[in-house]
Amino acid sequence: xxxxxxxxxxxxxxxxxxxxxxxxxxxxxxxxxxxxxxxxxxxxxxxxxxxxxxxxxxxxxxxxxxxxxxxxxxxxxxxxxxxxxxxxxxxxxxxxxxxxxxxxxxxxxxxxxxxxxxxxxxxxxxxxxxxxxxxxxxxxxxxxxxxxxxxxxxxxxxxxxxxxxxxxxxxxxxxxxxxxxxxxxxxxxxxxxxxxxxxxxxxxxxx
Length: 207
Fold this sequence. Notes:
mainly alpha; Arc Repressor Mutant, subunit A; Tetracycline Repressor, domain 2; about 75% helix
């Protein structure tokens, strides 16, 4: 039942927005009583936290794939494509993230922990890229935290930007591919010459 509630809640939050949706609304769409739903999730915060945890498990499955050796542009882009497709399924969270984090302290704490865990993961990936020659040897490690923050800002906010009028002509898959390209482009100056040329060609094809 929990899975059904989460699935329906995500659909309603995406459609109506989280601030305009009550637990009673979700229960009504599930054709169950408000009390039945609250047996599993006593508050909206409990439900949003469960959704956040589910989303992060799905994202983590792709994020760990980014740690494998990058041998070409496709291997670099594939995990990001998977991550951004997951994010699109939970679009409400990223469009309303500021309000969600301000309203729900438990979700804020989970998000803060996620940020730190993700930072450790990506810094380790960047270090591995440097050791394996994916990044040029001249790249200094003290730049990696700044690179991580750039990647995190873009990946965390692209869905809000994608909803602006100038992007309305793009399909969902076109939006995902475009913002994967934007994210990959952040890494371009760091790559070795061969990979930089290959990624540049990939960006021309996919932008």
